[in-house]
Amino acid sequence: METRYPLAEGLYDPRYEHDACGVGFVVHIKGQKSHEIVAQGIQLLVNLEHRGAAGAEHNSGDGAGILTQIPHKFFAKKALDAGFTLPAAGDYGVGQLFLPLDKTEREAVRALFVKCAAECGQTILGWRSVPTYNGDVGESVKAVEPSHEQVFFGRGADAPDAAAFERKLYVVRKYAERTIRESGLPGAGHFYCGSLSSKTIVYKGLFTSTQVLDYFPDLTDVDFESALALVHSRFSTNTFPTWPLAHPFRYLAHNGEINTLRGNENWMRARESLLESKLFTNDEIAKLLPIIDPQGSDSAKLDNVVELLLMGGRSLPHVMAMLIPEAWEKDPDMSAEKRAFYEYHGTIMEPWDGPASVAFTDGEIIGATLDRNGLRPSRYQLTSDNVLVMGSEAGVLAFPPENIVLKGRLQPGKMFVVSLAEGRIIPDEEMKHTLASRQPYEEWLRKGKIDLASLSPSREIKQPAPETVLRRQKFFGYTLEDLKILMSPMVNGGEEALGSMGTDTALAVLSDKSRNLFDYFHQLFAQVTNPPIDKDREEMVMSLTTFVGKEDNLLEETPDHCRTIELPHPVLTNDELERLRWVDKNHFQAKTIPLVFKAESGTNRLEKALERIRRLATEAVQEGYNVLVLSDRPVDSDHAAIPSLLAVSAVHHHLIREGLRARCGLVIETGEAREVHHFALLLGYGASAINPYLAFESIEDMRRRKLFKDGLTLEKAEQNYVKAVNKGLLKVISKMGISTIQSYIGAQIFEAVGLGNAVVDEYFTGTASRIGGIDLATLEEETLVRHRFAYPSHEEEPTDIEVGGQYQWRQRGERHMLTPDVVHKLQHAVRTNNYKLYEEYTRLIDVQGDAPITLRGLLDFAAGEPIPLEEVEPAENILKRFASGAMSFGSISWEAHTTLAMAMNRIGARSNTGEGGEDPLRFKPLPNGDSMRSSIKQVASGRFGVTSEYLVNADEIQIKMAQGAKPGEGGQLPGWKVDKFIAKTRHSTQGVGLISPPPHHDIYSIEDLAQLIFDLKNSNDQARISVKLVAEVGVGTVAAGVAKAHSDVILIAGYDGGTGASPQTSIKHAGLPWELGLSEAHQVLIKNGLRSRVVLQTDGMLRTGRDIAIATLLGAEEWGVATGGLIAMGCIMMRKCHLNTCPVGIATQDPDLRKLFPGEIEHVVNFYKFLAEDMRKHMAALGFRTVDEMVGRVDRLKAREGVNHWKAKHLDLDKILYGMGKQVGNMHCCDKQDHGLEKALDWKLMEAAKPALESGKPVKATFEIRNVHRTAGTILSSNVTRKYGAAGLPEDTIHLKFTGSAGQSFGAFATPGVTLEIEGEANDYVGKGLSGGNIIVYPPKVSTFVPADNVIVGNVCFYGATSGEAYIRGKAGERFCVRNSGAEVVAESCGDHGCEYMTGGRLVLLGSIGRNFGAGMSGGIAYLFDPENKAPANINREMVDLEEVTEAEEAIDLKARIERHFEYTGSAAAKEILSDWKNSLKKFVKVMPRDYKRALAEMAAETMAKG
Amino acid sequence: MGKVTGFKEFGRKVPSYLPVEERVKNYDEFVVQMPVEEVQTQGARCMDCGIPFCHTGCPLGNIIPDFNDHVFNGKWEAALKSLLSTNNFPEFTGRICPAPCESACVLGINKPPVTIKNIEVSIIDHAYAQGWIKPTPPPYRTGKKVAVIGSGPAGLAAADQLNKAGHLVTVYERSDRLGGLLRYGIPDFKLSKKVVQRRADLMAAEGVTFRTNAEVGKNVSVEELKAYDAVVLAGGSTLARDLPIPGRDAKGVYLAMDFLRQNNKRVAGDTFTAEEEIKSTGKNVVVIGGGDTGSDCVGTSIRHGAKSVTQIELLPKPPETRTVETPWPQHPGPRMLSTSSSQAEGCVRDWSVLSKEFLKDAEGNLTGIRAVRLKWEGPKFTEVEGSEFIMPAERVYLAMGFLHPEHSLPDQLGVEKDERGNVKANPKDYSTSVPGIFAAGDMRRGQSLVVWAISEGRECARSVDAYLNGGVTRLEAKAKSLAEVSA
Question: Which residue of B has its CA nearest to A1145?
């Protein structure tokens, strides 16, 4: 058995495993070693247990471990026991090894290790077998348990000092790792070296965090002493036994995810050939390779690079600042030296981008850093005994409150370092100053860096004759839609085109058209394991800067390193390209390589051309050219061009393999690139800059033909276009949680669908392409089809370019699943309740013949023993398994929304609120028995209308992680769509626009999702919790993680689901068909033994019984059908939902148009009944009596034979049809999730609140609380709502006081009548979804620190709160009051992004704010006490204005709030402000959203008019 | 896409007609052109649908949303380019097409549809007026020769396309003037013959050879066709359905086409002897058949100064609005009541009437029709007892449709026919049973609309071009892109 991940199988691929975790450390800052520190570290680990996870077995953890200093006293003792003597501390190193359990294997591996050590010239002093106790660990873990041994090395003469010794040990370890890995010895896979150092040691393994101590008795020895302990508890998506991937690694523990890993890895590989160091011999460097362990996780790989840079002579803080830099590009307050430091290092290495809280140590310093977004929590406290504790949560170690001298949190991009030698905390500013002043970085940059604009303009650029543009457009596959739908909005307004409804066209590989290679690639996106970013509201972290040029030896730091050409963004105009092409400065020389080949069929010209350009690239780099321009300009009637993406990626990978990639920059000059997706791909596969010359030429041509708005100059047109491309690029990268284009380059964040393995392996190395596909010859033919079209053998009257038909149905265009006929037949069938007509409809969809559109169109049922239809379970049973889609009231009209809900209720199926709340009047059934209540209540990132009452009225609560049409993106409901009723259900203001952020701000990782699931289960323990994911490669491992996070239902949505509005790029190019996602999820869940715990649902263009039968056989037991229901109601696929002009009154709020709504409940009912009946027929034919027995029976599917399609015939569907074991019986949901609610503190609260719950009598009670008590007060509140409705109880009826550190989500969804008071502190998400309750938090009365400066509540408090009050005496973390729509809050200060997306409520802050306050804030008011006038610089003014408080009434109200704050919390700050109220008032800044002000004025005017 | 909210802001507006009393005085077209600006405003009503049902509704596959948008934006040249990419003769269809596109218009679900037909004709008329339509002979000649038999809409479309592809095309027309049904089937007041001639002249200037008074198989020998690399049969469906009831031989009972053809010739300046003359002047006229041809007989008779005009149909009076049987976006055709401009000029319409006998006087002149009323149940009818009545009539025009093409030429060429008597051709590539001989239009599909004939001519030409070019064609197709590979 392998100790690493299992091999790829079916659609499972270990490359897509994720993890996220709890991380923390304890350190005595004066460096005093003690066993107590170790014990505290272990305790910290135990208290973080809820952040880790267990798999199918409760006692099989995902991994946990501890890193300490070398416990010399302990080892000296143990060495003697083992029969050897250790030299003085520091003069020996210890290796912590995993060896094969089998003795013979172990000895062989050990012998090889010894041999390696000898070859490196190092002396082994002795070995020690580490005692272990595995009684408590799960069986699956035991099965692959290694033998733990320690090896001791003595420092020899070749290592004059400690650093030199560490380097020697580094070489030994790297060399041994590679040698053993490649040895082929049996059991070699079990070898792993957790640490090998004279300073630190790592004890870790595949445990839950509570098992570490028992497993390693060493850790309980009182002689085991250290001044620091760094710990980590892992939550992995998988449950496979992977001992080595437990943290900590040798230098760090990481909570987060490296989104740009593929690129970082490739770039590191590219740089290996340039490595040189005075500190290592060349032989030693050779022994270190490969730097990155190919089998490592993202964290392990980051550790590998950290180690290299550290060993190369940089300090650990230096390395961390280099790999995970602050967002320096747009920070106006950053010092010039610091900016220069980051910029300089940016030219050396791209950021390792993604959410990250990294704790690091080399045994002498210990510290932590947060990524530029601050997407992981990190809290710390220092005691008067000099013990500092840092952790993902506050309160992980309990100290007497009076001993706490400092509390804080790590801020985005900041670093926090403790120097044990100096015995102090080095603040971020000081640390960064030290780093920044190491070298004259500013000067180096001034001399070395070349601004593109500074290059001399070259000669006049000759452009081809305008009248020939059509030819080029034809060759490069331009369509009328490209010009009209995509490019026009870009050129006219600098914006990417929006569209609506899902895509229903044939996949590129199934198309008859010659499609551009770009169309075969689908964008990946972040879901669950890391958050997407809001590039608009959090623009400050985003960067488009790229560098073109060579790189240098990573282990040196010289002025030469930053000799590079800097581009402000990756799109080059023709003029800019020419400047670059003729660059002659700082040794820069560019070489242009033509991408054309002779346009002749059947002669493998394409392959030979690829061979040629790769050779030319190699030669050019060897000759010293450091900018390569790949160009397809020379296309003519004799020559076609290599698809630009293929050319870029082929050269990029070739140069990586040759070790030459780091020596040159890659630029592509192409006529092909025009839409955002194209640019994203070219960057993602290695280009640093793109010149889309034909796009510019087309723009000029259209301008000449007056197809743009009047008065648009050519310059402005081009500028707008480039701006739109750049915006779109930021959107694409932010969707993946990536902030900088530089890290995105080469990151390959795509999956190919329909490209053959040979093509992918050779030219797109490392890209997933799971169903194979076309070969190079077909690709060549596809290119030549277009060449023949563009350059016909003889000139006729020139036809126009193709119509396209991707975005709108066209007779000459791409095939669609929804054709005029299909829509018509379906509507006719449901309106006349005619099953025969329905069958005509299904024939149009089901029989795809040689014109397939979907992957299921290529599948066929494997014949079975048919049974009579009567024996199949009745339609009523099947109807229960249907859900309609999540469409908000707001995106569709009241009429449409309620018709759908009533229809679904009539047939016992489920409708979904969508993200828009639900009017409480719908919770009561109508007199005729119909009900407008949606069974499924959606909880999306905007949290609109998510109140306790809303949640209590759900049968299912669905967390929308992603949406097929726009995964990784948020949404926006423009103000003009928000009428009175929508505003009411969304708890917002009429006429004020609403923003749903791309991420859920309380889900940045898998353990956060587990927390939200827990919160929602608390809010309604009778509802099942569902998580909606979108198909992409790796969704299976995400699904496994979600199952482990205790979701009851997992929905895998296809990329083709509908939307009310989304960028066209996303509708078309993000995500994958559900066939792939569903199969992967089903297979991986089975592989993990988790399938039986969750209901698996799928949706996305499910149209007929056949579609549903196939979905069932692939593993789905429930199905979402939405667009079909809409069509039944009268939708005619107008695809104008985003324009509010739906002519049939569905996707519109226009009262005139709503009157035209033709839908009837019966029509919808008929449709779903037809589907169920259709499904039953398929079941009968296949011989299944129940759906349950049918789920997952992939053996009853096969690839359809005789598909005669020039591209589709290359596909291989085996992986989709892979049977992951024969586990009949648990391939559908038959077990219940254990939500662990019984352990909730709330049962005690309920007990105390009994009189109030039963008869409304006021109660008061006091409780102790700890960080493990999560979501306190929520079950209690849900019961108040159940009994007393939304109005709850009179204020303060249930007053509960807590002392201690509250766990996450304290007071979530607390209701009126409930007051929750903490003396102590609280973690993240305080008052999440607050629904009328009161929350009061203040520090322990005995505390000595200044509350206003110390963090008392964590990040993302009052997220989506709708009403209620809160008083927080102390500092709050990032994103305070994010998306608050009604809570009234007073606090003392807050971190970055305060009041983000706020739509209502009030915030009074008595102290400072962090950066980007008020971003996306469309409603509510914030009052900031700002005596030093510092706030304005930190406020994002895009949507808000700053005012003074001038109205007397308002001033009285403000004062009253502060008085209450003082009354509840005893705030000194409040007291001081109140003591001189007159003057204080003048120092308040009122943050007023512009739209909100307008809307308030309008409403006031309306009231006046009425009054 | 037109104007986003245009359909809400603007009502449907179509050109008006000259008053009846004025227009019946002559044979001129009577549509009063709308100002260009108003046409543009009408373009704003187009919603640029995700699924433009109009675009399937149109047999030619006109890319209607695109030209609507261009017209709205005043980009008439762009509109023309789009229109001509699917339709060779928009000046014909824009005048006489029943506009199934408008029936399928999404706006038509609950508002009056976009005035697609008028926009179409405005584009092409505007283009002619601006002088944009000029002869553009193909720059390259393949040297291949094609004969097209028949100069109706199918033949002309095929010829136009094949000429564009560089082939040398000769069109054979048995009549004295070009245009087939366009010329002699449709009255001048609906389609001015100047419009037809203008197009024929243009094609001639672009290199198409026209031979009139040339009926292959009669005065032109079939042998002559051997000189061509390919032949397109586009002779139409010309055998009219007759009504063989007693008294059919009465003087005054005519086939509609005979009546209409003669009138068009007369308008064109030809003269006829009294013997030959078919006129309705001062007569009680009964037109049997409710289709377009019937309407043309009505309008022509009114212009002749008929005493009365009655139009009868076998079928029952259709409902005035769509029903479950004629849901949107189907073209309801005769299943929904509509009134043609000719009918509006003053004619009595009667339904569920079965003619039993033509009555004649002693000289054999028609005096009336003995008819009976019908009761319809589903597709079946019974005669209503005691409902017999007599309609006075001195003229009866039989406009009950056409059976199939005349068989003489197909038989001489040896091409197979289908069970309906049409020339049998593969619906995919229009090839007949004889290699090199293709068939298109009514001759292949049976009687249909002009717009279908043009569509067939175009698709057939594509197939002929591919046949002549070793499988490759550069001609636009209705439902295929030029850059695609089919299975």
Answer: B110
